[in-house]
Model the fold of this input.
Amino acid sequence: MPMRMICADQTLLDAPGKLEPGRSYRLGRSSRCEFVVEELSVSRVHAEVMVDGDAMCVKDLDSRNGTFVDGKRVNDATLRPGQTVSFGAALFHVVGNLQWPSDNDMSAISTHIMRGNGRPQLGPEPVRPLTDAQHRVLELLLIGFSDKQVAKKLHISIHTVRNHIKRIHRRFGVVSRAELLAAFISESRLP
Done:
């Protein structure tokens, strides 16, 4: 399944525009890494992202502050769409099977930066990752499903969908679906 890694804050300074199968990419603060992240909680060479066919894997490289997939610390993991990956405090989302404008010149797996209001905050506490249910709702919203279609697809009530949407909006610091989509699409491709 085609996947993309989206940086959900403004910590990503540089990244490859396309991730090629059979390659691995280092992530860290060092300018020698392919993913250069400006975040003090990220080690100089923090983790490695590997692409094997349509699969994307992540491996922690003995970083001080760890690599987390959906809030759980991992040494290595295969990533699925809808998951949140944190390298220290740098936050990325794995999104799958999206149709981006001018997608014909994009590889099946690529990386994007999501620019917005900076790192979303929930009061004085650190950012909490989305729940699995919220990830599923977000994935369908980004594809373009309506609230009603999301409810039908996930076999949940429209009321539950709207509650998830409220929490997703709060998590990303937006107040409408248009702002949420704009955050993911407006500056989603690297030059």
Remarks:
- Residues 24 and 50 are 4 Å apart (CA to CA).
